[in-house]
Design goal:
Layout (H helix, E strand, L loop, with lengths): L1 H5 L19 H12 L6 E3 H10 L4 H6 L1 H8 L6 E3 H28 L7 H16 L17
Antiparallel strand pairs: 1-2
Helix pairs in contact: 2-6, 2-7
Length: 152
């Protein structure tokens, strides 16, 4: 068996291809979003670039409720006026994680009181679909290629 593996040519790089749509994690999505916002390619985004993108794209409801100013202030806690790609990706993941925790707490409180609500997983899935549509990746969140398992 080892001879079959060693006989693969040196210039060939195996690639996995699936019939399912390509899945993207939150870091990849945030990185793509940053690239769309960084219109001048400087590797950082300004508050005005962020606000313009916030108005043009359709952010998920939780982010929309926070508002562009509040989000940018969380991404730029030192008030430098610009945010690097790494700070943007990490900051947005943190903000989305906090929003999810808040939704789960509200969902659990409503469930304890006997109220019917949308599950946090379904709400998160909807929010991520909004992000993917803003990025032009609406096909990546269909069927088997969904980035969130909403059956939880």
């Amino acid at each position: 068996m080892s001879s079959a593996i060693s006989s693969i040519g040196g210039g060939y790089t195996p690639q996995v291809v699936s019939g399912a749509s390509r899945r993207q994690g939150p870091s990849q999505m945030m990185s793509q979003l940053f690239q769309k916002i960084d219109t001048n390619g400087t590797g950082s985004i300004t508050k005005s670039q962020f606000e313009a993108a916030f108005q043009q794209m359709n952010p998920p409801p939780g982010l929309k409720a926070m508002g562009a100013d509040a989000i940018f202030n969380k991404l730029d806690p030192n008030g430098t006026g610009s945010v690097s790609k790494q700070d943007f990706v990490n900051g947005m993941k943190s903000i989305l994680s906090q929003l999810r925790a808040q939704r789960e707490a509200a969902h659990n409180a409503n469930a304890a009181n006997g109220n019917q609500t949308t599950s946090p997983a379904a709400t998160l899935s909807s929010g991520l679909q909004s992000l993917e549509q803003a990025l032009g990746n609406s096909a990546t969140n269909q069927g088997t290629g969904s980035i969130v398992n909403t059956s939880a």
